[in-house]
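Support request, please re-run this one:
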Amino acid sequence: MFIILKKILFTFIFNSALFIVLIIGIQNSNNKSKVNLIIGETILLPISFIVGVSFIAGSLTGSFITINSNNKKNNSLKSY
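Re-run finished. Output below.
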């Protein structure tokens, strides 16, 4: 249980640090674009912000998927 909490905390801190660096890095970005969603469009956002947030979302998703799959493997090994 402690290892899972440690992995989640590391993932949260790491991705939060990436997000802060992203916000600081896009201060002078002039290239802006809209993202077309299923429901509508977003406001004009810097392209680097869109790419960075997509990377961070993928990093979070991948981290939680691996944490979840590791739990299932460990639980199935304990049942034998």
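Residues 43 and 74 are 44 Å apart (CA to CA). The mean pLDDT is 83.
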